[in-house]
Amino acid sequence: MSTHGITNHRQGQEMQVVEVDYLVIGSGVAGLRAAIGLACGGSVYVITKDEVRESSTEYAQGGIAVALSDEDTIGIHFDDTIKAGDGLCDEEAVRVLVNEGPERIMELISWGAEFDKSGSRLAFTMEAAHSRRRILHAHGDSTGREVERVLITKARSMPAISKYSFAFVLDLIVIDGRCYGAYVLRDAHVEAVLARATVLATGGAGQVYLRTTNPAVTTGDGIAVAHRAGAVITNMEFVQFHPTSLFAPSAPQFLLSEALRGEGAILRNIHKDEFMLSYHPDGELAARDIVSRAIVAEMQRTNARHVYLDITHLEAEYVKCRFPRIYRTCLKYDIDITTELIPVSPAAHYLMGGVRTDTLGCTSISGLFAAGEVACTGVHGANRLASNSLLEGLVFGARAAMTALDVSDHRAEVRPSDLTLSLYREQELKTIEYADEIRQAIRKSMWEKAGIIRSEQSLSTALDALKKWSHVLEDTYATRYDNEIKNMLQVACLIVEAALHRQDSVGAHYRSDYPLKK
Ligand code: SIN
């Protein structure tokens, strides 16, 4: 890694230029797995806008789907994934996921991952739309935390990897269709990080919705910077809503894992009546989009703002031991899940669309790779099979790294000139006026008009509301918060435009004015 400063003569400011072999943006499962794969090729600079651990991975509860149990096969995992994707999966990408999944999991175990066991054998749980028990879990309901722990420990043991927290990607450095790294906001200064290859692994965009299970960091930054750089973005209409997030006035929209329903939890309406079987023969274990829409219909029918999840019929000790994090969190908000019904309603959970990649992790921009939720490999089609995303991060994070090593080895050593880089600072960093109000307006419009059920009318209203703030897209800002709002607005527009364009209902995308699949 080398560092020097360049001066913008018009503004008299100095910009730091950092030269590394590989730049990874994001420190969840996909980013860390990519960094580990790249470490044999040179220096790897991992930047993340918050603490290293602060990503959706850390909060993933249910687990990792993988065909490793005696009752399962790779072929059945393939079939379930394709079925959940409602005809829009890329079959080649799904084949890669299910075939390479077991190897990636065994590798993780060899690095120290401790998945829950039943006796001496791995324990697998059930989730919606899986035809076999195939979900590995750790510490009951803290699977993502265990995966993150192992990857951080592994990355820490590799001297080639340096991690920088609170470093926010402002824009990619793309010249003549090639990516040379990124401009990064760090300690209130802009830095140009030049790299032979850049891997985007910034996660999803749940924060564009008022209700989301995602942590605060999920503001769609990777998709927004890739879009600004001219990368192909695809499938943005496909937003998965998780049926059950906690709905209590003083509580966060905490995820109540699908594994609860996998272990027998029942959905009840406000009158405490079961309802799922009148919507779908698979009841509580129907696909997520079906369960989410059934909950919305039931809330409308009963004029209620939530339904209930009921696990009180299971042995209390079993529930506490199998779901310790959920048990403790709900108790903090005065709900004892072993004896009381849990108020829940759907919330935005996962973005199936994103920066288009092939199965090697290549985007449409040379030198730029993407993996994890920011990417759209086509694995999830119109609807992601539960617990396929941690696996996707591992498999495609590793693949993106292998491709980046290979491609960048053969590349002539060129780099943008200092003069070109210094021009970026000519866009003076600004402040957004009424930032809080704009952020809230974006999230509210998206939830009310571009959520679980959309129509031409609701989407057009959302687009008009978003366009009111389009001046925000024109500048670059001095704070992470303001730049996040710009990115949220960008991603919200992409979602709404794609949802308007797709005039049918498929997977997670449901148009009340076109209720049938084409
Ligand atoms: C859950 O635990 O319900 C979430 C799992 C997932 O979204 O894959």
Q: What strand line-up does the widest sheet have?
A: 1-2-13-12-11
**What fold name goes in the CATH topology slot of the largest domain?**
FAD/NAD(P)-binding domain
Helical segment tally? 15
| CATH-scheme architecture of the largest domain | 3-Layer(bba) Sandwich
Number of strands: 22
What top-tier CATH class of the largest domain fits best? Alpha Beta
**In percent, how helical is the residue content?**
25-40%
Say which molecules are bound, naming each kind only once: succinic acid
Describe this entry's structure for a reader.
This protein has 518 residues and is an alpha/beta fold. The protein has three domains: 2-238 and 352-421, 3-Layer(bba) Sandwich (FAD/NAD(P)-binding domain); 244-347, Flavocytochrome C3, Chain A, domain 1 (Alpha-Beta Complex); 428-501, Fumarate reductase/succinate dehydrogenase flavoprotein-like, C-terminal domain (Methane Monooxygenase Hydroxylase, Chain G, domain 1, Up-down Bundle). The protein has helices at residues 29-38, 56-59, 74-84, 91-110, 143-156, 221-228, 258-262, 288-302, 316-322, 324-332, 389-409, 418-422, 435-449, 456-467, 480-501; strands at residues 2-8, 13-19, 22-25, 44-47, 64-65, 117-118, 121-122, 124-125, 135-136, 161-164, 167-175, 178-186, 189-194, 197-200, 233-234, 239-246, 266-268, 307-310, 342-351, 354-356, 368-370, 375-376. The strands form six sheets. A five-stranded mixed β-sheet has the order 1-2-13-12-11. A five-stranded parallel β-sheet has the order 10-4-3-14-21, covered by helices on one side. A hairpin with a 4-residue loop joins strand 1 (2-8) and strand 2. Helix 9 (316-322) packs across helix 10. The model has no long low-confidence stretch (mean pLDDT 95). Bound molecules: succinic acid. Succinic acid (SIN) binds at residues 61-62, 257-259, 349-350, 386-387, 389.
